[in-house]
Every structure is written in structure tokens, then in C-alpha cells.
UniProtKB/TrEMBL annotation:
NCBIfam families: Trypano_RHS
Domain (Retrotransposon hot spot protein,C-terminal): residue spans on this chain: 15-174
Superkingdom, natural source: Eukaryota
Pfam families tied to this protein: RHSP
InterPro entries to which the protein is assigned, alphabetical: RHS_C, Trypano_RHS
Protein name: Retrotransposon hot spot protein,C-terminal domain-containing protein
Length: 277
């Protein structure tokens, strides 16, 4: 941002010129922010459109070329602290960042951009959401199992056996003036209580949305929606089950989809380490 401001200011001689060009400057900055979210913040790739287009194509090819073996290596890098070794392609999708957590400082590998992160999340979900692949990932030497489950544990709600087991262990979190109630998952048929598909939802601002567009008419029951941003409020994912709220409240309003929505209940999924509860 500072470089962009300096670049724009250097061609303006007076404050009056700046005021006149402000709208165009802000428009260019919006475009640059979009490019940053697509390929990362390196200046050499975001200020020239032709260079940016070439870089975006390189990133696309690098992502399309990821194999299952490659994904296992990325899991070890992201969750196990394995050092990234340059191989001629990963620099397009991984960057090194300086991290400070509870006073401990270190260098960590991170997806190069928000769009790339969303694509990697989607690939992780496809490759490792299955029980056999999840176990395989958890058994990788040096991999932090807690970190793995915190990142993609939400996918466990796509498996009937897992949800059936969880239903028997759920505890009601009391609120002042509220009586204990059963979870909606304990009230519906076993076949209807788990998500049977997943979609990565694009919430990131200023991007060319590649995740699913989320609106009232596109929502479907038993589809696990996973936000593409790591700091999505309260939940890590959510889905709907076809059951009315136990208190008789209305899940959805009127209109063409109103009747359908009245028979849905929202299920929010949050996966955190014990210390964060």
C-alpha cells in the first residue's frame, strides 16, 4: 500500500491534482488489492496487468499440478513444521511469514494469497476428508494432530458414523433463563443428521469470487459450507438439517422459500483446541 501511495503521489504535483485524481487512484488500488488476494503481495507481480496475468496463469498451473503425494508434503509443511524446500513450483503457492505467538517468534510457511488458501483448503477437504485419508494424515511423522483436527476437523460432520458417535456425547451449554434442550442432531433420523456434500464459500472481500456464492436461494440442506477465510466469526463451518427448531421458532422468513426454510435448523460447527474453549 505504501509503495502504491508513493507511486501515485510521485506523478502529482499539487494537492489539487490529487483531489481531481482521487477516484481513479482509489479504483486502481481496489484492483491491486484484488490482485494481491489472487497471487500474493509481491510488488513485481501486482502493479503491471500483463505481469499479473502471467503470474496468475502460473499459479493456476501450479495448483492444477498438485498430486496426492504433493498434498501430503504440504500437510507436513503446514501442520508439522517441515521446512519448505524449493522445487521450482511451490514458491507460486507458498510464502514464508514471520510469526509471533505467545511471545514465541518463528518463521512459518503460509499460502501465498487468500485465493490460493481457499483452493488448498478445498483440495485438503477432497483428499483427506475421508476417514482413511484423515487417519493417514494424522499418522504422518511430525504432524501436529491437534492442528490437523482444528483445521479440517469440520469435515468429520460429513461422516454418519462420526456424527452418530458425537450425538451421544453432546452436552447442553446452559444459558440464564433457558432450559436444557436436546441437540437437533439427536432429534432427526440418522440419515439426515450429517452433511453429505461440502462447498467452499467465498466470503473474502475484493476478490474475484471462486468459492460458492452464498445466498438464501442457493443454500441446501445437508451441505457443509466451509468459509474461505480463517477468521470467519464464531464457526468454522455450518450446514442445515431438515427439522424445525424445537422451540417452535421460524428458521426462515416468508417469500417463495419461506415454507422450505421453516423446516430447517442451522448447525454450526466450531473446532478448537481445549485451551480455547
Amino acid at each position: 500500500m505504501a509503495f502504491h501511495a508513493f507511486q501515485e503521489r510521485s506523478v502529482l504535483r499539487t494537492d489539487e491534482e490529487y483531489v481531481g485524481a482521487r477516484e481513479q487512484i482509489e479504483s486502481r488500488w481496489t484492483e491491486i488489492r484484488t490482485r494481491i488476494r489472487e497471487v500474493g503481495p509481491l510488488p513485481r507481480y501486482i502493479f503491471d496487468k500483463e505481469v499479473f496475468d502471467n503470474r496468475r496463469e502460473e499459479v493456476k498451473k501450479a495448483l492444477e499440478g498438485i498430486t496426492e503425494i504433493d498434498m501430503e508434503r504440504y500437510v507436513e509443511i503446514f501442520f508439522g513444521g517441515k521446512q519448505w524446500i524449493e522445487d521450482g513450483t511451490t514458491h507460486k503457492i507458498i510464502r514464508l511469514v514471520w510469526s509471533s505467538i505467545d511471545g514465541y517468534k518463528s518463521c512459518r510457511n503460509y499460502p501465498a494469497s487468500a485465493v490460493i488458501a481457499r483452493e488448498l483448503i478445498s483440495r485438503v477437504a477432497r483428499y483427506f476428508a475421508g476417514a482413511s485419508f484423515l487417519l493417514k494424515m494424522l499418522r504422518m511423522p511430525g504432524v501436529d494432530g491437534a492442528a490437523v483436527l482444528e483445521k479440517i476437523g469440520v469435515c468429520a460432520f460429513m461422516y454418519r458414523s462420526v456424527v452418530d458417535e458425537l450425538v451421544g456425547k453432546m452436552k447442553h451449554l446452559p444459558r440464564t433463563g433457558s432450559a436444557a434442550r436436546r441437540s437437533v442432531l439427536a432429534r432427526v433420523n440418522a440419515a439426515d443428521r450429517y452433511a453429505q456434500d461440502h462447498r467452499i464459500v467465498g466470503f473474502g472481500s475484493g476478490t474475484r469470487q471462486q468459492g460458492a456464492k452464498l445466498d438464501r436461494n442457493s443454500l441446501r440442506p445437508r451441505v457443509l459450507y466451509i468459509p474461505d477465510i480463517p477468521n470467519f466469526p464464531v464457526v468454522d463451518g455450518f450446514y442445515f438439517v431438515e427439522a424445525p427448531p424445537e422451540d417452535g421458532g421460524v428458521a426462515g422468513g416468508g417469500g417463495a422459500g419461506g415454507v422450505r426454510w421453516r423446516n430447517w435448523t442451522f448447525v454450526g460447527v466450531q473446532v478448537t483446541k481445549a485451551g480455547k474453549h
